[in-house]
Amino acid sequence: MIDVAIVGGGPAGLTAATYLRRFHRSCVMLDADESRARWIPESNNCPGFPGGVSGPELLRLLREQARDFSVPIEPVRVGRVAREDDGFVIDGEGRSWHARTVMIATGLRDRLPGEWAEDALACGALRLCPICDAFEVSDRRIGVYGPADSIGSHAEFLLAFSSSVYALPADGGDGGDGGAEGEAARQAGVRWLAAGDLRFDGRRCSYKVADGEIALDTVYSYLGFDTSVPLDGLDIERTRSGEIVVDRHQQTRVPGLYAIGDIVGGLNQIAVAVGQAAIAATHVHGRLAPVARSDAEPAR
Ligand SMILES: Cc1cc2nc3c(=O)[nH]c(=O)nc-3n(C[C@H](O)[C@H](O)[C@H](O)COP(=O)(O)OP(=O)(O)OC[C@H]3O[C@@H](n4cnc5c(N)ncnc54)[C@H](O)[C@@H]3O)c2cc1C
Q1: Domains and CATH numbers, the chain
Q2: At a CB cut-off of 8 Å and minimum separation 6, what does 229 contact?
Q3: How many A from CA of 92 to the centre of ligand 1?
Q4: 14 C-alpha to center of ligand 1: Å?
Q5: Tens digits of per-residue pLDDT, 248-300?
């Protein structure tokens, strides 16, 4: 019986694993290796990296740190987490693990605007999170793409970074004008285009409408996300968009089942994910039976 099984090895899960091993807890990291952070070309708001850091490099460093404390990282997609006696059973790809507590750190899956999206993310032509990187496109020509009835407030937010913000409705919802939110955005200075097609030429995105095409320095896409949490018969609370609801210790309403990082409703940021990991790991350590060290055990 392992003390903690961590499902998901992005910034949240890896940080929790390091904390837990440093509390001398046994844990296993079960990870399908598709962190959202792998798409970050360069993050400049991640604490401790004055010159910026790419998502893949940050993940490499977090894995290295976890391995320094002997975290076993299993490459596996978990299919099911269920209650079992006084703990949990976790199944994935024909294998099973048994743990006293479980941390869900499975993140989100972004809905992307086209097959070209990963290439466009890599070169910064497409972006998903203005809190992360709008500073980098200050005073550039910025597009905001998504359902007409939900892009108005996002476009207005971006006016703090550039006076050249274009709303690009992905559909004709709300008559294509975004309703009251769209009107408020237009009043604030957002340029609202008709419904059209978002394209990528390998370098930049452009938006094609019936009577022309406009090139954009970058486009923020707001198509939402999907969550998949492999919990079987566990009575957790979820938000309307599928995120897990937790208490101030990151615990769900199922005792011993925690959730951390983007899968928890709130601000989807690396700093938040690692903060939640520290809170959850410390609480788990406190609720499990005290560790009894023997003189012969090595520290790592
Ligand atoms: C383009 C882009 C740019 C960003 N820029 C920044 C930035 O500059 N600053 C910032 O703070 N944040 C940024 N973010 C957000 C940041 O990437 C996320 O907040 C962060 O990755 C969340 O970490 P997490 O550990 O919760 O989830 P993730 O990093 O998404 O990791 C979840 C892990 O769980 C695994 N998993 C999922 N389901 C299963 C399963 N069933 N079994 C096993 N494993 C599973 C996944 O494969 C993945 O490895 C950006 C995001 C994107 C997409």
Answers
A1: 2-109+225-287 (3.50.50.60), 112-221 (3.50.50.60)
A2: 104, 106, 236, 238, 242, 244, 263
A3: 20
A4: 11
A5: 999 999 999 999 999 998 999 999 999 999 999 999 999 998 888 776 566 66
